[in-house]
Amino acid sequence: MTLLFAAALGLFLVVLYRLFLGPRQAEAWVAEHFVATDYGLPPREVLDARRAGPPPPPHRGEECQAVADAAWAGDWQRAARHVRAAGEDWDERWSRIELLQHIAGEDDSWLDAWRTAEPGDCDAATLQASLMVHRAWAIRGGGYAHEVMSSDMDRFRAMLPAAIEEARKAALLDPANPGPWVVMVTAARGAQYDRARFRPLWDGLVARAPHHYEGHWQALQYWCAKWFGSDRLMLRFARGAVRKAPPGSPLAGIYLHALGEIAERSGSGSVPSTPLAQRLLKQVAASFEHVAPDDERLPALRHLLAHSMLRARLYGPALEQFRLIGPWCGAQPWRKDGNAVVAFETARGTAARLSRTRPAPAARTHGIGH
């Protein structure tokens, strides 16, 4: 009995060490002894806090600038062709709508010309509705409701019904296009839609694009505790996204946003470390293995994954994510505390220390990838 008690006590002390003392001592070890290259990581002197990942190929930026310049010069046809070229890749098509929304935010006279010339074009109507929602949110701002001036909140809520109606009209122009439904799902929480009114909008979206990333992100916001859901409902929704994420889609990353929402609202920065939570994080990592390395959403998601894994005590898997991330550290988990380089270096060093990985100096190529 004494031996059994001693064994149980020893196990308890080990767990206690890993839970409370390990991370603190690891941080001190990082500051004094951590050599990143010994763990297959780029050295601290090459860390780059300007970006979350490598810059996109020059031709992408050039193409976007060309579309913007043409639009501001009155050539709406180029903008229309740019969106239509995405075909039925609905995530890409939405990304291009967002680009046009940014362009129209500077000057929307070309959009007016497009609407006049092609009143039956779903993309133009969707863009108009999305721009209306964007302008309403710009008035409201990103704060909690009690932080927003009542006059701004009144203007915000008055603008959203018109935006939703514009999106409904757009949906009639191309019944297969999920874009208008993304707009409606986005506007629903600000328009104070209860669950009975929200669900048909969500059903309409997933009937057309069941794995739409932005649509899922907007729905996650609806289901979070600060709007019309709860932590339980939000996590259930996010777990569903992990389960149904198809190969090549970053949809499983929605779960990471849910964890971030809970950590931010609680103020503790903690992440669930239950076996279920750990298993889900490993599933997210496995899903990312099939996402194209040049997907521009992937770098920021890998940072969120590494951050969540570290706090869920998945030190070995977190270290592997840091290897895939490479030298880029300009992502939100590290920027929020001020010095992104220091926060990133501490995090990856902690992962290396607590994973009990043996140092193995070797030359490696680093960067976001599989």
Write the SSE topology.
Elements (H helix, E strand, L loop, with lengths): L1 H32 L24 H15 L3 H9 L5 H17 L2 H9 L4 H19 L9 H24 L5 H10 L6 H14 L4 H11 L7 H14 L9 H13 L8 H14 L9 H14 L3 H11 L6 H4 L4 H15 L16
Helix pairs in contact: 1-17, 2-3, 2-4, 3-4, 4-6, 6-7, 6-8, 7-8, 8-9, 8-10, 10-11, 11-12, 12-14, 13-14, 14-15, 15-17
Organism: Streptomyces omiyaensis
Protein name: DUF4034 domain-containing protein
In short, what is this structure?
The protein is an all-alpha fold and 370 residues long. The chain contains 17 helices and no strands.
The number of domains: 2
- Beta-strand share of residues: under 5%
The helix fraction, in percent, is 55-70%
Low-confidence stretches: 7-17
SS class: mainly alpha
Sheet of most strands: none
Number of strands: 0
Q: So how many helices?
A: 17
- The span between the termini is 50 Å
- Described by the principal axes of the CA atoms, the overall outline is globular
Summed over residues and divided by their number, the pLDDT gives a mean of 90
Following the backbone from N to C, one meets helices and strands in this order, namely HHHHHHHHHHHHHHHHH
- Kindly provide the radius of gyration, computed on alpha-carbon positions and rounded to a whole number of angstroms: 23 Å
Protein name: DUF4034 domain-containing protein
Organism: Streptomyces omiyaensis
